[in-house]
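Example record

One chain of 118 residues, shown exactly as stored in the release files.
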Amino acid sequence: QAQLVESGGGLVQPGGSLKLSCATSGLRFRFSLYAMAWYRQAPGKEREVVASVGGDGGGGTYYADPVKGRFTISRDNYKNTLTLQMNSLKPEDTAIYYCYGHWIDSYWGHGTQVTVSS
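Predicted structure tokens for this chain:
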């Protein structure tokens, strides 16, 4: 059974940093084929893409405007993991962050809470 498990969330002060990780297992196809992304959902708002990175078929990286220059997405195709380095965090970054993978099929993680508050 496929699993995407996020970790690394927590409470941080404005201007601080967090590193989120997504450990994957049991995917139907090898991890490197999947385009991977981080989404977030703040209270009362729709889920939105934060950043994405292509799989073996290409696609490059993408960052939503609000996080450009502050967040960095990366993947390790040997460890089958996805990470999101978040710097200069702002209160508006507070949300549940989800890991997502898509190729022929798609998978969601259950999310990890990030709270930015003084």
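Notes: The chain has a mean pLDDT of 97.
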